[in-house]
Specification:
nine-stranded antiparallel β-sheet, GH3_C, alpha/beta, Auxin-responsive GH3 family protein, binds adenosine monophosphate, ligase activity
C-alpha cells in the first residue's frame, strides 16, 4: 500500500492514490486492521476490547466489532493518557511504540491548545500528502525543477516536559524532520529561507527575512505559499511598511538592525552579502508603482515567474480571500489540503478549482475515518442551553457516506487516537473514484449563542461577508473580525468586533451593523430578536493593529504563526480586554426597531 515514496515520480504517487481511491472501502478496513495489529495491547484499547482475538476475523466483522466495542471519544478522554506520556511514563498507553514527541494544536479554534501525539508516522504522512498535492498541482501548473518556493513558514519554540517529551506545534516538528528536506529534494522545489530563519522564534524577524530572501532570489520563485493564508496576508501587510529597508539591504548587501538573532543574521548574510544595486533599483521602482495602486497585484509584479499562490484558503481563512486576490492579481489561488494536528484527511485533486468551491479527496491510508451524519434541527430546542444545532445519526464508515449530507469526522489514527471526534463539520460533495470528496463547512462547536439561538462560525462568516460588502462600496476594507456573545447583561446580545482599513462615514457603519443583525437567519435568533430576548447587535470598531496584538498574544503563549487562525468568537478575558480597550466606536443595530 505504500507509494514508492523515496524514488517515486509524480506519476507513481498519483497512480498510487488513484488505486487506493478506487478501493477506498477495502483500504480503510486494512488501515483499521493495521492500526489494531500494531496497538491491540495498549492500555486504552484493552479497556474496551479486552482479549478479543481479531486476527482471523473478516475485515467487515472486525470493523463492526471495533465500532461496537470502542466508544466515540473526545480529546478529554485521551487527556489523562497523554498527560501520563508527558510525565514520562513509558508503558504502552495508547500506542505500542513509545511516543517521544507531542504536538500542540493551534488552540485558536476552541481557545485551548491541546497536546496531540506525534510519531514518525505523522511526518511520513505529511511528506506523502505534500508530494501527492504537488503532483496534482504540477499537472495543471507545471513548475521549473530546482525552482524556489517563497514559503511563509514559522516554527514555534520546542520545549521538553518534565518527563523529557519534546513539545511543539506539528508544523514545527515537521520542519525539523528529515521528511521536510526529502520533500524539497523529491518535489525539486526549495524554500528561499534557511532553517535558522524558520526557527528563529521571532515571527517579525522571520517575516522580514522570508521577504528579503524571496526578493533576492525573485527570478527563481515558482510559487508563493504558507500553511494558512493568514500568514501570507500578514507578511505582505508588513512588507508595505518596511519594503524600503529591504531594498537598502539588497542594495548594500547588509542586514537591517531589526534582525538581532546572531544565527539568523549569519545565515541570511551568507546568502545576501554581495551588494546588488541593480536588483534593489528594480524592486524599488516596482514598489513605488505598487504603492500608488494600493499594492494591487503585488505578487506577480515582484515575482514575475510565480505560477500560483498555494495555501489553506477555506474555512476560517475564507474571509482573507479578497485581500489575497488583491495581492495575487491574476495569479491563480490554489487551495491547500485538509488536515489537523491529529491526522491529515484529504488532498485537493482539482488545483484549478476556485477556493470557494474546493473539496478534498479523503486519503484512505492516513487514518480510519468514520462520519457522524448531522442534520440541522431547525425548530427543535433542546432545553434552554443549546449546545449544538445538529441532530446526530450513528456514525458510518467511509463506504456509506452520501452526497449532500453533512458529517462530523471521527478519526482512528496510527498515533493512538481511537474513534476521536475531530469537531469539524464537512459535506460530501462527490467522489474521487470511490473515496469521498469533502467540503469543509465549519468547526462543529457553536460560537454564538445567547439562549435558543444557534450560530456557527460559518453562519457568522456569511453575515460578516454581507456587512463588509457595504463597507467595500465606500472603498474601505475589513482587515479582520471576531465576535462575542454578551450574556452578562439582560437581554444578552452579540458583539462583532471589526478592524477596518480606510475612512468610513458613521452612517455606513450603522448600515453595516443593521445589515449584519438582519442577516442572521437562524430561527432562534430571529424570534429572540423580535421579542427582544436578545438585544440589538453591537458593532465595535477597533483601532488599527488590534488584531495583530491578538495574534501576538497567542504567539507569546506558544502558538506558531504557521498555524494561527483568528478566533472568530471569544470568551477569553484577555482577548476581550484587548478588544474592549482598543474599541474606538460602537454602534447598536436598529434592524428590529429603534
Ligand atoms: P490545528 O488545530 O492547528 O491542528 O488545526 C486543524 C484545524 O484547522 C482543522 O480541524 C480544521 O478545523 C482547520 N483546517 C485544517 N485544514 C483546513 C482546510 N483545508 N480548510 C478549512 N479548515 C481547515
Amino acid at each position: 500500500m505504500e507509494p514508492a515514496m523515496y524514488k517515486g515520480s509524480c506519476c507513481d504517487i498519483i497512480s498510487w492514490f488513484e488505486d487506493i481511491s478506487e478501493n477506498a472501502s477495502c483500504v480503510q478496513m486494512q488501515t483499521l486492521r493495521r492500526i489494531l495489529q500494531l496497538n491491540f495491547a495498549v492500555e486504552y484499547l484493552k479497556k474496551w476490547i479486552g482479549e478479543v482475538n481479531f486476527e482471523d476475523m473478516e475485515d467487515s466483522a472486525l470493523e463492526s466489532l471495533y465500532t461496537s466495542l470502542v466508544p466515540l471519544a473526545s480529546h478529554a478522554d485521551f487527556e489523562p493518557y497523554v498527560q501520563r506520556i508527558a510525565d514520562g511514563e513509558k508503558a504502552p498507553l495508547i500506542t505500542q511504540e513509545p511516543i517521544s514527541t507531542l504536538s500542540l494544536s493551534s488552540g485558536t479554534t476552541d481557545g485551548r491548545q491541546k497536546y496531540v501525539p506525534f510519531t514518525c508516522h505523522s511526518s511520513k504522512t505529511t511528506l506523502q500528502l505534500f508530494k501527492l498535492a504537488a503532483a496534482y498541482r504540477s499537472r495543471i501548473y507545471p513548475i521549473k525543477e530546482g525552482g524556489r518556493i517563497l514559503e511563509f513558514i514559522y516554527s514555534s519554540k520546542q520545549f521538553k516536559t518534565k518527563g523529557g517529551i519534546t513539545v511543539g506545534t506539528a508544523t514545527t516538528h515537521y520542519y525539523a524532520s528529515e521528511e521536510f528536506k526529502i520533500k524539497q529534494r523529491q518535489t525539486k522545489s526549495y524554500i528561499c529561507s534557511p532553517e535558522e530563519v524558520i526557527s528563529s522564534g521571532d515571527y517579525k524577524q522571520t517575516t522580514y527575512c522570508h521577504l528579503l530572501l524571496g526578493l533576492y532570489l525573485y527570478d527563481q520563485v515558482e510559487f508563493i505559499a504558507s500553511t494558512f493564508a493568514f500568514s501570507i496576508i500578514q507578511s505582505f501587510v508588513s512588507f508595505e511598511e518596511f519594503w524600503e529597508e529591504i531594498c537598502n539591504d539588497i542594495r548594500d548587501g547588509t542586514l537591517s538592525s531589526k534582525i538581532t538573532i546572531p544565527s539568523v543574521r549569519k545565515a541570511v548574510l551568507d546568502i545576501i552579502s554581495v551588494p546588488n544595486p541593480c536588483l534593489a533599483k528594480r524592486v524599488q521602482s516596482k514598489c513605488v508603482e505598487l504603492e500608488e495602486k494600493d499594492w494591487l497585484g503585488l505578487i506577480p509584479k515582484l515575482w514575475p515567474n510565480a505560477k500560483y499562490v498555494y495555501s489553506i484558503m477555506t474555512g476560517s481563512m475564507q474571509p482573507y480571500l479578497t485581500k489575497l486576490r488583491h495581492y495575487a492579481g491574476d495569479l491563480p489561488l490554489v487551495s491547500a489540503d485538509y488536515g489537523s494536528t491529529e491526522s491529515w484527511i484529504g488532498v485537493n485533486v482539482d488545483p484549478c478549482c476556485p477556493p470557494e468551491k474546493v473539496s478534498f479527496a479523503v486519503v484512505p491510508t492516513f487514518s480510519y475515518f468514520e462520519f457522524i451524519p448531522l442534520n440541522r434541527s431547525e425548530n427543535e430546542v433542546i432545553g434552554n442551553s443549546a449546545i449544538d444545532d445538529f441532530l446526530e445519526d450513528d456514525p458510518v464508515p467511509l463506504s456509506q457516506v452520501k452526497i449532500g449530507q453533512q458529517y462530523e469526522i471521527v478519526l482512528t489514527t496510527f498515533t493512538g487516537l481511537y474513534r476521536y471526534r475531530l469537531g469539524d463539520v464537512v459535506e460530501v460533495v462527490g467522489f474521487h473514484r470511490n473515496t469521498p470528496k469533502l467540503n469543509f463547512i465549519c468547526r462543529r462547536k457553536l460560537i454564538l449563542t445567547v439562549n435558543i439561538d444557534k450560530n456557527t462560525e460559518n453562519d457568522l462568516q456569511l453575515v460578516v461577508e454581507k456587512g463588509s460588502q457595504i463597507l467595500r462600496k465606500s472603498r474601505a476594507e475589513l482587515v479582520d473580525f471576531t465576535s462575542h456573545a454578551e450574556v452578562g447583561k439582560n437581554p444578552g446580545h452579540y458583539i462583532i468586533y471589526w478592524e477596518i482599513k480606510g475612512e468610513v462615514e458613521e452612517r455606513v457603519l450603522e448600515e453595516c451593523c443593521r445589515e449584519m443583525d438582519a442577516s442572521f437567519v437562524d430561527h432562534g435568533y430571529v424570534v429572540s430578536r423580535r421579542t427582544n430576548s436578545i438585544g440589538p447587535l453591537e458593532l465595535c470598531i477597533v483601532e488599527k493593529g488590534t488584531f495583530r496584538k491578538i495574534m501576538e498574544n497567542f504567539i507569546a503563549n506558544g502558538a506558531a504563526l504557521s498555524q494561527f487562525k483568528t478566533p472568530r468568537c471569544t470568551t477569553n478575558q484577555v482577548l476581550l480586554t484587548i478588544l474592549n480597550f482598543w474599541t474606538i466606536k460602537r454602534f447598536r443595530s436598529t434592524a428590529y426597531g429603534p
